[in-house]
Every structure is written in C-alpha cells, then in structure tokens.
Input
Amino acid sequence: MSVALHKDSSADIGEYMAGLGRAARAAAAELAAAEPALKNAALLEIAAALDRNRDRILAANREDLEAASADGLGDAMVERLELNPVRIDAMIEGLQQVVKLADPVGEISELRYRPSGIQVGKMRVPLGVIGIVYESRPNVTVDAAALCLKSGNACILRGGREALNSNQAIYRCIQQGLEQSGLVATAVQVVNTSDREAVAQMLKLDDCIDVIIPRGGKSLIERIARESWIPVIKHLDGVCHVYIDEHADLGKALEIAVNSKTRRYGVCNAMETLLVAEPVAARILPDLVARLTALGVELRGCERTRQFAADRIVPASEQDWYSEYLAPVLSIRIVDGLEQAIEHINRYGSGHTDAIVSEHYGHARAFLRRVDSSSVMVNASTGFADGFEYGLGAEIGISTDKLHARGPVGLEGLTSQKYVVFGDGNIRA
Output
C-alpha cells in the first residue's frame, strides 16, 4: 500500500511524496523484470476487482458529484467527473484490451550485422517511474495504471481534488488486483491528499521520477511545464478542426462535422472550428446550421458564414479561432480553398487533431503532409483521436510535443530504446 500521509505541514507532504518516490523507484526495478504473464494476471485481477466493487465506486463518485455541484464546478468538468455503469464497463474493457496487446518490453528490432562481425540492434525498455497529474476523469486512474504496468513502469498518480473519493475507491481495486496477482504493491501508488503542495513536491522528485504526464486544463498543464524539474509529455489545448473541401462528399461531411462536435463536448478531440471551402458553402451550411442549432450548439462565424443565417450565428472574434471551448460552442469560417484551410489550421490550431473531408486524392495527401498536428485525418471524425480507437488499448494521454512521444500515448510511448550488441568474442582493431 502507499506510504501513510502526515497532514501537519508542507514539510510532511514533502516527506510523504519523497516516500512515494522511493517506493516507486524500488518497485520499478522489480516491475521491469516482471514476465508478461504476471503483468497480464495483475490487469485481469484489477478488472475483476472493479467489477466486484461497482456499487462502492459509484457511491464514491456520487459524493464527488455532490461536492462538485456545491462548489459550482463547470459542466464540462462535471461531465468528465461522472461515472456510470457504462464508463465502468469501458474501464474494464480497457484493461482487457491492454492484456491482449503485445508486451513491448524486451522487444529487439533493427538487428543487423556490422563489418566487424558484431550485431547491433535496439531493445525496448521501460522509462522507469512515471508521475501522472490529472483532473476530473477518474477513469484515468485505471488507464494510467494499466499502461504503466504493462509497459513495465511504476507510477505515482495524483488526481484532482474533485475526484478524490472516486480515485481512492478505484485505487483500492487496483491494490486488490496487485495483491491477488503477487505483483509488487507499490507499482501503482495514488496520492491520497488534494493539497496542491503534493504536486509541487512531486515535480521536484527528479531523482525518483523519470517523466511527468499532466492531463487536464490548460492552466494545470502550463503550471506543470513551468515548475517541473522532470521531463514532461503534454498537450495544452485541443483546438481541433474539420475542413470541408470543395471536393467533399457533402453527406459524409455533414455527419462527420456533427459527430466531431456533438459526440462529447468536454473532450480534447472535439471539433472547435469548422472550415468550409467557399465553392460548397451554400450547399452544406444551411443543413449544418440547422442540425447544430437543433442540438443546442452556439455558432460563431466569419462575415461570409453569417450571410447564411445571421440570426443564428453570432460574429466570431479573432480569439474564437484560438479557443478550445469544451462546450456546445463552434466557430465556423468559410475559406477560399485548401491553401487557406491549411494556413488557418497551422496558425490557430494546437497541433492536436485536424480532419479533411474530401474525395480528391491530391488534396487529401497535401493536407496529411502539411498540417502539423499529432493526428491528421481524411474523411473521419476527430472523435477517433483516442488511444482505444487507435488500437492502443487505453491511452495515458495525447501528446502534441514532438519529443519523446506524439499523439495518443500508449505502451510504446511509455518505453524507450537502448542499443544492444551481440558478438562472439569480437575485439576491435
């Protein structure tokens, strides 16, 4: 189990976090050598514990939801916080999917002979200890634990104050699974205080933690990136675009745009700006405006867009093009064509996920090459930018950095590579 917390002072919190760090470092050495069968057994035991403890998890989540309501937490955060039977099913399925994935640890690739007679290749190895700081979503506790365990990494998880009861209930299930399987118990530790000082102390544990991954709002991620002594894998915004090209199938375009925006509002892969090529604007915008407004989406548009429904589209400001709303709000701009769409996305986008709807092969290829984002799509909803949908099982986050990982971060993103050399008595001249 995790180290006991003393709540008397920031010094006590520092001692507590250092204890977690030391325990995680020791666990990482054991976990790196664990056989795939043992790691998979632990994941299945965790899944079984979640299934057995559904009522306790939902009761703890209700406490968090009641507190969130009393504190005036925003709708988007509440939507992320809420658990229900379907979301618990999804956590269990995520664990089962990770079990089915090939274990990357120890995999040797690019093995080749050199003129000297030695063989040189690369072996995939765990990063070591991963610290994860996140807000609202309790399912992150399971997703993060699963991916870290499977990739041979120990982890320290610090959820938000608003999800403290939910996270602790889930953590008890994780501990049960680890104990049942015989895997080292401190491979996963969940910080059991909501004091902000715990995060500050965690970010200083560069002797124990190898990488920090923040998941949450922009202010949280900016703080982590600014204060951390440890390398950070992050994304700040999810300003995602759908561009409807002049060569689009308008039936596909309508469904993709509506799904990209309205499937879920409070997620980072939701479309925040719709770009429409001028030649097809008159043919698709009336239907799109009708569909989106009927679903309660507030529309903000450029002057050319407002010509189609000025009574239902308010003027967009320059700031709107930069905005991640995480709400039923959408910016719409009519562009001259592909060039202006790409220019807009690379200027205002966040490098998260952007999609083109087009039947023109050359336009689709140009969009894929030139849009500088972690996920670029052709004729598909931005909602697919997700580790589970990409076949990674659960994901630990989506990175818009270019080093060390980019896009949804799954098992491979939580490992590194080292060179391995095989010889047969070879000596260098």
Summary: The first strand starts at residue 108 and ends at 113. The radius of gyration is 24 Å.
